[in-house]
Amino acid sequence: xxxSVGGEDDDEVIAAINTTPLVDVMLVLLIIFLITIPVVTHTxxxxxxxxxxxxxxTTPKSIEVAVNKDGDFFWNESHVDGPTLLTKLKAVSAxxxxxxxxxxxxxxxxxxxxxxxxTDCERAGIAKVSFITQPPAxxx
Length: 140
Known about the structure:
The structure is a single chain. This protein is an alpha/beta fold and about 140 residues long. It has a domain at about 65-130: Nucleotidyltransferase, domain 5 (2-Layer Sandwich). It is about 35% helix and about 15% strand. The protein has three helices and five strands. The protein has a five-stranded mixed β-sheet. Helix 2 (about 80-95) packs parallel to helix 3 (about 110-125). The radius of gyration is 35 Å and the shape is elongated. One of its GO terms (molecular function) is transmembrane transporter activity.
């Protein structure tokens, strides 16, 4: 490739062909063919079976245990005391499949009350305990 930088032979016609765009296009086509050819060709022709997916088990409904700032316990929005909470947790732990326990605690609740719910879940044999929180407001 030759490049003319002004000077003596300004009237001379350059007969060299710029092949850079041609090479770029060819490389792009090569990459496209390398990617698409393995997808198009299959090694062994097969007739795969058609099957619908059936769930093996239904997901159990989760139980929500709420604790307000005064330390009162709520089982799915109904007020319960400490011994009743433990009794209900033991009954739930015997279910198959076992539902999850979602603990919702007020922001100002003392840790003692939340810890009591977790301890009762452990005593009852609950396998999954989750804490429900609220995401922070955006822009702050």
